[in-house]
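Holo model, magnesium ion. Inputs:
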Amino acid sequence: MRKEEAAPRIPVHVAIIMDGNGRWAKRRGLPRLKGHQEGAESVRAIIRACRNAGVKYLTLYAFSVENWVRPRAEIRGLMMLLKRFLSRQEYELHENKVRLRVIGRLADLPPEIQRELKRVMKATERYDAGQLILALSYGGRAELSDAVRRIARRVRDGEIEPGDVDEKAIAAHLYAPDVPDPDLMIRTSGELRISNFLLWQLSYSELYFTDVLWPDFREPQFREALAEYARRHRRFGDIE
Ligand code: IPE
Ligand code: IPE
Ligand code: MG
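Output:
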């Protein structure tokens, strides 16, 4: 790169809707779980790619509140893969001083998975080189209703006044209030929707949609998304 060229703008926080595992498998005549398995490899690759690129926060939509309607066997398979992912990833989290967090209704998950997640979250809570945030049993509307319920309780208990309920107060009651809003939101597999992901936090994120299916989304594809982000012009309501 020439000296006078500005360094590429790197997003601080990238959030990803990892979609298309089922279709990836179907195209190959494989069971859906194989797609999820290959998708888990993409997760590992993208965590590494974030580290290489200097992205500090990575939020991955791994399981939505809506996903509970899927066949029991698929849910069981996904939970098994989550457990395997955790045990394979733990070393790397420690090695790179990355903190693991979960957003979503953790209590909905199988007790064994909850235990593992809590253990790894606790073991990594002091790390500050980066954060890996897994959205599990997550829904944007569920997050907002959970926040509003907690605010209502605090108003009832006289801790805050109704007049104090502003954007800052709402943001402070979300699942991970200290995490900055995503700069870039990526969705794979060609679907052009948000599917109840981070409804509050995405209000000014740059959106990037690609037809690539999640199991095929690796470092080169991620780099392309970062390059596109670097070309975007964020106005935040201002002119020019
Ligand atoms: C994303 O892939 C993984 C989860 C939602 C857990 P899908 O399983 O939704 O894959 P498609 O959309 O059926 O291809
Ligand atoms: C969104 O994918 C949720 C996750 C990636 C975990 P879905 O495949 O569930 O989304 P819809 O139902 O097609 O909108
Ligand atoms: Mg899908």
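Residues 13-140+184-230 form a domain with the Undecaprenyl pyrophosphate synthetase fold (CATH 3.40.1180.10). The mean pLDDT is 96.
Archived with the compound record.
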